[in-house]
Amino acid sequence: MVNVLVVGSGGREHALSWKLSQSSKVDTVFTAPGNGGTQNNVSINVDDLDGLADFAQKNNCFTVVGPEDPLAAGIVDKFNKLNLPIFGPSQKAAQLESSKIWAKNFMKRNEIPTARFEIFDDAQKAQEYVKSLDYNVVVKADGLAAGKGVIVCDSNDEALAAIQTILVKKTFGDAGNRIIIEERIDGVEASYIALSDGDVAIPMASSQDHKRIFDNDEGPNTGGMGAYSPTPIIDDDLAKIIQEQIIEKTILAMKNEGILFKGFLYAGIMIRDGKPYVLEYNVRMGDPECQPITMRMDFDLYDYFAASVDGRLSSLPPASWKSQFAVCVVLASKGYPESYSKNDEISGFDSIPKGSFVFHAGTKKSDGKIFSNGGRVLGVTALGDTLRSAIANAYSATQKITWSQKYYRRDIGKKGLSYL
Ligand SMILES: Nc1ncnc2c1ncn2[C@@H]1O[C@H](COP(=O)(O)OP(=O)(O)O)[C@@H](O)[C@H]1O
Ligand SMILES: [Mg+2]
Which sign, positive or negative, has the C-alpha torsion 255, 244, 180, 221? Predict the structure, then answer.
C-alpha cells in the first residue's frame, strides 16, 4: 500500500483525490493544501517545493500534481532527484504550457496543426504587422498568466490595444515580455486529454468547458463555469484524428527532441471545417473538466499514474469508461470573476442524490461546517445515460446546495445537445 499526496486545492484536486482514494493499492490520500472537501489536508502551499518533498519523503507518498505552476517551477525534477515517485511532466516538458512561444515553435517545426503566427517583443513592429493583415488575430502573452493573458480581437484597433496592454503596460508582468500574434480561428472549441508515459498516450476523454461567466458564453472569462464529458463535438472519427495527428505526434516529437512527456497532455482544440487546430497545450488536467472526466473513469487511476511514471503504460489494458455522460456545474460566489464575498456558510450537502457528487474548490471547513473561500466554490457533478439526463441530474443536485451568494450558469452542456 502506498500513500498519495495530491498537490493543489481546486475541484480538480478534490476529484483526483476522491478517485485515488478508491484504489485498493492506496492507503491514505493527503492533499496539500486542499480545501473544505478534501480529506487529510496538509497545510503546505503548492509553491513550497521543499516542504512538499519533505512531507512526501516522511510519509512514503506517491505525489500527484494538479496545477501548472509547480510543474513549471520544476517540482517533478526536484522529486526525481530525491528518488521520490511523482506523476507529472518535467520542467522542460512543461514548457508546452509554460511558454506559449515555445509551444508554437514546437508545433511549427513538427507540423502539428495550429493557427499561423508571428512572435514579437517590440510593440511598434507588432503593430505594423497587425496593420498588414487582412484577418482577425488573437494576441497572447508568452508566459503563465492565470488564464488571463490571451486577448481575442474583433478588429485591428482591439489588436493594437492588446499589444499595448501586454507589451507596453506589462499587465501580465514578465509573462508578457514577448507576445504571439496568431490568426483567429472561428470554429467550435473542445478539449482532448490523454495520459502519457513518454512513449504511448492513452486517450482519457473528450470534454467541453464553459469559460465565460454568463449564459450563452457572454461576459468575461473565468477559470471555467462548468464542463461535460464526452462531447459529441468530437465524434469517433475526429477523436482518432486528434489522437494520431496531435497527441501521438506531440509525444513522439517531444521524445525525438529528447524530452519525455509524462503526465496529462491536454490539447485545447478549435475545430473549423471539420479540421482540428491546437490553440494551446496544458500539461495537466483541466479544471473543471477533470471533475466530469474523473466521474466516468472505470479503472484504477493510481495504476495508470504509476505506469506513467515507470514508463509501462503499454502493458496496461485500455482505460475503460462508464458509457454515461457526466456534467459538472460550477457554483460560484456572486460577483466572481471580479470581487465577491467569502466566509458564507453553505448547506445542503446531505441531500445530494446518488449518482451525483459535489467536488469542493473554494471552500473551507470549520467546526464541521462548510464556508465559501473563493470565487469558484463547488463543482456539482452528475452522471446520466444521455447528455440531457446528465444535465438534468446535475441541475437537480445543484438545487440542493444553498447559500446566499450562490451563482451558476443555467446552460452547461447545452452546446453539446445541438450536436446530438
Ligand atoms: N487562434 C485562436 N482563434 C480563436 N480563439 C482563440 C485562439 N486562441 C485562443 N483562443 C480563445 O482564447 C481562449 C484562451 O486561449 P488559450 O490559448 O487557451 O490560453 P489560456 O487558456 O492560457 O488563457 C481559448 O479558450 C479560445 O477560446
Ligand atoms: Mg486555455
Answer: negative
- Inside any domain, residue 113: no
> Which residues in 94-124 are b (16+ Cβ under 10 Å) and which e?
bbbbbbbbbbbebbeeeebbbbebebbeeee
Cα 58 to ligand 1 centre (Å): 41
Asked if residue 138 has its Cβ within 6 Å of ligand 1, the reply is yes
CATH number for position 351: 3.90.600.10
Give the model's confidence band at 309: pLDDT under 50 very low, under 70 low, under 90 confident, else very high: very high
Q: Is the CB of 115 under 6 A from ligand 1?
A: yes
Mean pLDDT of 252-257: 98
Ligand 1 centroid from CA 273, angstroms = 18
Residue nearest to atom 1 of ligand 1 (CA): 184
pLDDT at 420: 82
Which pLDDT band, with edges at 50, 70 and 90, does 313 fall under?
very high
Average pLDDT over residues 72-101: 98
The chain-wide mean pLDDT, for the chain, equals 97
Of 152, 182, 186, best ligand 1 pocket probe by most atoms within 8 Å of the beta carbon: 152
Whether residue 182 has its Cβ less than 6 Å from ligand 1 = yes
Q: What DSSP string runs through 205-266?
A: EEEEE--EEEGGGEEEE-S-SEEEES-TTS-HHHHHHHIIIIIIHHHHHHHHTT---EEEEE
- pLDDT (average), residues 39-53: 98
Q: What is the pLDDT of residue 236?
A: 94
Owning domain of residue 156: 122-177
* Same domain assignment for residues 196 and 282: yes
Query: How far is ligand 2, taken at its centre, from the CA of residue 280, in Å?
Result: 6
Cis preceding linkage at 220, omega within 30: no
Q: Are residues 329 and 368 in the same domain?
A: yes
Report residue 146's pLDDT band, with 50, 70 and 90 as the boundaries: confident
Q: Is the pLDDT of residue 205 over 90?
A: no
